[in-house]
Design goal:
By secondary structure, the chain is of the alpha+beta class. Helix content is 23%, strand content 38%.
Amino acid sequence: MVRPIMRDVFFLRQKSEPAEKADMQVVADLLDTLKANQASCVGMAANMIGIKKRIIAVNMGFANMPMINPVITKKTGAYQTEEGCLSLEGVRPTTRYQEIEVEYWDAGWNRQRQKYSGWIAQIIQHECDHLDGIVI
């Protein structure tokens, strides 16, 4: 189900709770909402659709991929950039890292550990910030 985009900064600044297998409908709704907003959005966190669960969806170029309970375990190559957000107006400066390593559960509840770099790494960092209540 496509859900409305949350724009309440007070809500967005709250930390998300760990996701469980019972939250798979949230994964589906997040993927549907990202697809519906693909013209202006490349990633989305569950709190952006009003659900405080540690779930993100990232456009990998070929498909939208969910990450459940993602944790960035390693980051290298800090750089400064500006980002926008579907939940906010305008762009803001932020620090990101060129290369990251992420541990997460996939949609089949299999534990994953992957390395990402460049644009995909930047998207993942932005969405993980959302899970921690960090609004750029």
